[in-house]
Amino acid sequence: MPIYAYRCASCGFANDHLQKLSDPALENCPACGQATYVKQLTAAGFQLKGSGWYVTDFKGGQKQPSSKETPAASEATAAAGDGAPAADKAATPAPKATSTDGANACAGN
Question: Which SMART domains is this protein grouped with (predicted)?
């Protein structure tokens, strides 16, 4: 059952009421008795829990380990830091070191 927020236009009394969708709207203010008790427009209050939501899985930009990965593979991926598997990092050759010092420079380069 939804919770509706009401406010009296005469005295300013405000309260929340738990009502069925089929129940008629309240009209009489419980504080002053006037027929100026009106339903307020409010934002829906809900929370996304569990996996598969933007807030829990994708907001931080980190890849979540799949259920097919082993714990060791997910640790290696986390240690890599950029989301690439450790095997891919080992296969990538290291960049060649270059020197700006003329004495150490190779003549063939």
Answer: CxxC_CXXC_SSSS
**What is the Cα gyration radius of the chain?**
32
What is the residue extent of each domain of the chain?
3-39
Whole-model pTM: value is: 0.43
23-to-19, 32, 41, 42, 100 alpha-carbon distances in Å: 6, 22, 17, 18, 82
Cβ-based neighbour number of residue 15 at 10 Å: 14
- Of 2, 6, 38, which Cα lies nearest the Cα of 21? 2
* Residue whose C-alpha is closest to residue 53's, from 42, 45, 64, 43: 64
Enumerate helices (H) and strands (E) in the chain, giving the number of each. 2, 3
Convert the pLDDT of each residue in 72-104 to its tens digit.
555 555 555 555 455 555 555 656 655 555 555
Residues linked to residue 14 through DSSP beta bridges, in sequence order: 7
Enter the tokens of residue 55.
């807030």
